[in-house]
Write a structure and sequence with these properties.
The protein is of the alpha/beta class. It has a four-stranded mixed beta sheet. A four-stranded mixed beta sheet has the order 4-3-2-6. Strand 7 and strand 8 form a beta hairpin. Helix 3 runs antiparallel to helix 4, helix 4 packs antiparallel against helix 5 and helix 5 crosses helix 6. The two termini are 36 Å apart.
C-alpha cells in the first residue's frame, strides 16, 4: 500500500483527538467530526486548545507520525515523535562527504538544478492557465534564461569559500536579463533587485 503522508491540521478550539483501533478520531463537543486511518497520515498539527489522548500520542510514535502542538497563532510549542534510530556509519560517511568538495558540489548541484527546474515549471503553468501570458516575451526570456542556467549548473563542479556552487560565467548576465523582465514595485534599485532575485529563486 502506498503511504500518502498527508498532514492533518486541527484548528478548531476545544477539539480532542483520540485513538480507536488504527484510526485517529477527531471529536468536538462530544461529537465525532472525522475519522482518519493512521496509515494515511504523515503528521498531525494541532493549533491552540486542542487535546490529545496519551494512547494516540504513543500510537503516533509507533507509526512514525509526527504530532506537533502550536499556539493558535502558529508559534511552536512541542512535538511528539517516536524513537530515533541512529546509524553511526551513516553519520561518519555524511561528515566525510561534507569535507569532500566534489561530493558536496554534487549535492549542491542537484539542489540548485531542481530549484531552477521548479521555477520553470511554475512559469510554464502560469502560461497555460492565463491567456495573457501565453505569448509573453518576458516569460519566454525567463524560461530560456532558466534553461541556460540549468545546463550551466549541470557542468559546474566548483564550490566557493562559502560552500555554494560557483556561478557559471553567463549567470550574472542571465540573471540581469531575467530580472529586468519583471516590473518592480519600488523605485529603490537595491530593493528591486532583491525582490526580483527572490522571484527567480
Amino acid at each position: 500500500m502506498k503511504r500518502l503522508l498527508n498532514t492533518l491540521f486541527v484548528t478548531t478550539q476545544g477539539t480532542y483527538l483520540s485513538k480507536q483501533g488504527d484510526t485517529v478520531v477527531v471529536s468536538h463537543e462530544q461529537e465525532t467530526k472525522l475519522r482518519v486511518p493512521i496509515h494515511n497520515l504523515g503528521s498531525i498539527v494541532c493549533f491552540g486548545n486542542v487535546g490529545c489522548s496519551p494512547f494516540l500520542m504513543g500510537f503516533c510514535g509507533e507509526q512514525n507520525v509526527t504530532l506537533s502542538f502550536l499556539t493558535e497563532n502558529g508559534r511552536f510549542l512541542a512535538r511528539v515523535h517516536g524513537p530515533v534510530n541512529g546509524n553511526v556509519l551513516l553519520r561518519k560517511e555524511q561528515y566525510r562527504r561534507s569535507d569532500d568538495a566534489g561530493a558536496s558540489a554534487l549535492i549542491a548541484r542537484s539542489l540548485v538544478t531542481a530549484k531552477l527546474a521548479n521555477g520553470r515549471i511554475v512559469l510554464q503553468r502560469a502560461q497555460r492557465d492565463r491567456q495573457d501570458l501565453q505569448h509573453s516575451p518576458a516569460i519566454g526570456r525567463a524560461l530560456d534564461g532558466l534553461w541556460e542556467l540549468i545546463q550551466a549548473v549541470k557542468d559546474e563542479n566548483d564550490l566557493d569559500e562559502s560552500g555554494a556552487l560557483r556561478e557559471p560565467g553567463p549567470t550574472p548576465t542571465l540573471l540581469s536579463s531575467i530580472c529586468s523582465s519583471r516590473p518592480t514595485r519600488n523605485s529603490s534599485s537595491s530593493r528591486s533587485v532583491r525582490e526580483d532575485r527572490r522571484w527567480i529563486t
